[in-house]
């Protein structure tokens, strides 16, 4: 997931097709701290899902999840 720090021209790049976080550029945000909170809120479910996939894969392979 792209994190939008500073405004840049990324049209035509593969990342432009992926929804980034936050919806606005952090560098242009009225409150950058709130923008960073939105980033963490958006990343948390993605990270949780990746962890669950890893745990499931380890169980399938007979390894003990950490």
Write structural notes for this entry:
With 66 residues, the protein is mainly α. 44% of the residues lie in helices and 0% in strands.
Distinct helical segment count: 1
- Computed over alpha carbons, the radius of gyration is 16 Å
Distance between the termini: 25 Å
* Structural classification: mainly alpha
Low-confidence spans: none
Q: Calculate the mean pLDDT score and round it.
A: 88
Which term fits the overall shape? elongated
Q: Give the beta-strand count.
A: 0
Structural topology:
Layout: H1 32-60
Entry keywords:
single chain, 66 residues, mainly alpha, 44% helix, elongated
Structure described in brief:
The protein is mostly helical and 66 residues long. The chain is 44% helix and 0% strand.
């Amino acid at each position: 997931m792209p994190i939008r720090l500073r405004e840049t021209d990324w049209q035509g790049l593969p990342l432009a097709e992926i929804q980034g976080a936050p919806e606005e550029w952090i560098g242009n945000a009225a409150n950058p701290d709130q923008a960073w909170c939105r980033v963490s809120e958006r990343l948390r479910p993605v990270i949780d899902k990746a962890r669950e996939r890893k745990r499931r894969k380890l169980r399938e392979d007979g390894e003990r999840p950490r």
